[in-house]
Amino acid sequence: MRLTQEQNELRATVRSLLARHEGTDAWRPLTEQIGVASLAVPEKYEGAGCGAVDVHVVMEELGRVLSPVPLLGSAVLAAQLLLATGDDEACARLLPGIADGSAVVGVAWAEDGSWDPAATRATAAPSTAGNRRIDGSKRHVLDGTEADTLLVTARTGLGVSLFEVAPGDPGAHGETTVTMDRTRPLGRWRFEGAEGRLVGTDGGGARALEHALDLARTALAAEQVGAAQACLDLTVAYTKERVQFGRSIGSFQAVKHRLADAYVLVEAARSAALGAAFAAEGAELAGFGRYASVAQAAASEALSTVAGDMIQLHGGIGITWEHDAHRYFKRAHSSAQLFGTPDWHRRRIARSLDLGRPQEEARP
Q: What region, left, alpha or beta, does residue 232 occupy, with left being phi > 0 and alpha being psi -120 to 50 degrees?
């Protein structure tokens, strides 16, 4: 699995741009100058028609600087969800805006701490306008309340379905979630008779969302690898500069061993994440969910471990607001919960490999 020359150039270009533009200010140049939001959108919908490996490259670079831009939630999860529904009309209407970065589409499906689409309790009842009235609450909506359009899961008589809801609908009420990790905007939405337009087939929302989630997990794993690499780079640089007992602390064998272990974790996670990205581009997607879970579990644990080591090896400065260590530590633990915990992913892997009868599965 090797990146092409074009993909390496894409990495260098994104890294250079992020060095000049920080925070949300990077979104416009990323989309207008590089077209990052168009990578996973087919050309027929005004996208670049690239694949998961190109997305992987960009997500790694975003993870290195903990960028809060809406690539994961809108240009990956929402875009892939629309494509998975097979609804050409909705794709033609919504994907061009996602691709050029002019529109942010949020996906609202998590309820009561569960990421499982099957746990959906929000309901969709027929309305006089021919659409549906959506009632229920959603949490952990990526990009908070900044979305221009919402894709909401709700139950009908045929099962979990997907609906397009306008954030400005009188029955839609959103609020920003106050979180420890300020680098990942999240929001919660309450729907009280909001007008919802069916996207895809009635009852087909869960299957489409599961596929889109696996692609989002693959992208998130790449972002976690980028953040873990940044933690390792910062820590190695600090251990070379920090002097104790007349020598740099990086010269002590115990510190060398710890950094070596961190390096192995990061490289193993990178291989798993890149493997999942290549699998997503394969002609046969059977078993892709297993690759996505392997990547997510490995990357989550690598980032959590390396971020924790960064704080410890930096000593006192590592727990101050002035240093970035706490930001990576918070992102590590929030990302490890985002689309299922490492334990949930391991149970999923075991089940897919038929490794005995697992214990009753907890919700992700």
A: alpha
Does the pTM of the predicted model rise above 0.85?
yes
- CA–centroid distance for 68 within its chain: 11
Rounded-to-integer distance, Cα 10 and Cα 287, Å: 29
Q: Which of 33-42, 110-119, 245-254 holds the top average pLDDT?
A: 33-42
Contact 202, 156 (CB under 8 A): yes
Instruction: Give the residues across from 153 on adjacent strands.
Output: 162
Structural contact between residues 41 and 50, judged by C-beta atoms closer than 8 angstroms = no
Relative orientation angle of helices 288-314 and 253-280, to the nearest 10 degrees = 160
Closest listed residue to residue 137, CA positions, set 150, 158, 120? 120
**Angle 202-207-210 (CA atoms, 0-180°, nearest 5)?**
140
pLDDT tens for 143-188 read 989 999 999 999 999 999 999 999 999 999 999 988 888 889 999 9
Strands 149-156, 247-248: pairing kind: unpaired
- Let me know if 258 is exposed, middle or buried by CB neighbors in 10 A (0-12, 13-18, 19+): middle
Structure tokens at 13: 């270009």
Beta carbons of 309 and 332 less than 8 angstroms apart: no
pLDDT band at 285 (very low <50, low <70, confident <90, very high): low
Record the tokens describing residue 234, joined without a space.
């910062």
SS3 192: strand
User: How far is residue 241's CA from residue 249's CA, in Å, rounded to a whole number?
Assistant: 8
H or E segment and range at residue 141: strand 132-142
Nearest-CA neighbor of 185 among 141, 225, 154? 141
Query: Around Cβ 112, how many Cβ atoms within 10 Å?
Result: 10
Q: How many angstroms separate the first and last alpha carbons of the chain?
A: 30
- Are 185 and 143 in contact by the 8 Å Cβ rule? The answer is yes
Task: Identify whether the C-beta of residue 107 lies closer than 8 Å to the C-beta of residue 151.
Answer: yes
Q: Are 260 and 98 in contact (CB under 8 A)?
A: no
Give Cα 135 distance to the centre of its chain: 26
Task: Give 43's DSSP letter.
Answer: G
